[in-house]
Amino acid sequence: MTAKKPGKAPAKTPPKKPIHLKSNDKSSKIQKPGSETPAKSKAPLPAARPAVAPVVKAPAPKATTPQPAAFRAKKTNGAVKVGVVGCAGRMGQMLLRMLINAAGVVVVGGTERRGSAALGQDLGALAGAEPLGISVTDDPSLLFDAADVVVDFTNPTATVQHAQMAAKTGCALVIGTTGFDSDQLAALVRAAQRAPVVLAANMSLGVNLLQQVVEEVARILDPDWDIEIIEMHHKHKVDAPSGTALALGEAAARGRGQQLRRIARRVRDGQVGPRVKGEIGFATLRGGDVVGDHTVIFAAEGERVEITHRAASREIFARGALKSVLWAAGKKPGLYSMRDVLGFNVQAPTTPSGSTPPSS
Ligand code: NAD
After folding, report:
1. CA atoms within 13 A on the CB side of 274
2. Which atom of ligand 1 is nearest to the CA of 85?
């Protein structure tokens, strides 16, 4: 059975309560791949899979317009139909590779920004795999009609546009992009009223576990313990501090019953004076090909506790994205976090109006 978009939820799927910015709802337990979305057979992908490219020049259909036969008639053996926006990026390519080889999902299209050298290339070849017969396009609108779930590792401006398409079509959206400002976050929250949206600044199991540990340690230690967060990423990363560092800051602030935006010290430069008691400091390092290192330091007189996570490969994020895809297919509209996907039972984060991404 193919996972359906909201409004067309599979009959066997019990209605799940959409959760908004809550991670401890029972409905957020992880679903075994295959429970909603039966695994795809090991048979090769359909040879005559329709390409997105030939139809991109057609006017974008309204949500109520029946899909072109080429999309409607896809034989997916009950697998979840997945689209990847930003498919030529570092994460996009890694994810494509994983999706192509995964059971229970089938890639139905991929997009890139206008002018990208990847436009027109075969998605399979782009991922270093066998050709899929699907070309990269720069028009995501048909992709959102065709897919059950779209995964987005692009940039905040593009992601907001994609979220609006998800809201229009009801297609689930898994967002790995980081660096949203509060207006952009609010736009994602609005879109999540119409479509299931998983928003996760870090999709790795280890970092999500780290967040939980940091929250707990911050709760246990008194405010005499200073909290500082150091992160390092590759030289191409454009936002700082990283979404994960901020999410760890949110976790620490929650542990102290505070809102991060009130106590964050994101940059120190020049004559900044002594450290303000209770603030949470950030330090950002950039260089080489570092996938992502994060350390949370709790420092007191005479002793220090340091908790570190190091990502050795982007595969850990792609694995989390794949888990999110299988989990999100057929879910009710709502804003979900990686902790919902992983089934972690933690205290609900604060609201986005408090600028807290409901993410990992
Ligand atoms: P990247 O620059 O390699 O890839 C981004 C891709 O998006 C590029 O290929 C770019 O051309 C494409 N793009 C830009 N605008 C587009 C549009 N309108 N439509 C389609 N494609 C478009 O960056 P990356 O390293 O892959 O990271 C992407 C994002 O994911 C960043 O925000 C990064 O911080 C985040 N990230 C998140 C996680 C996580 O676990 N959540 C892990 C790694 C990276």
Report:
1. 3
2. 20
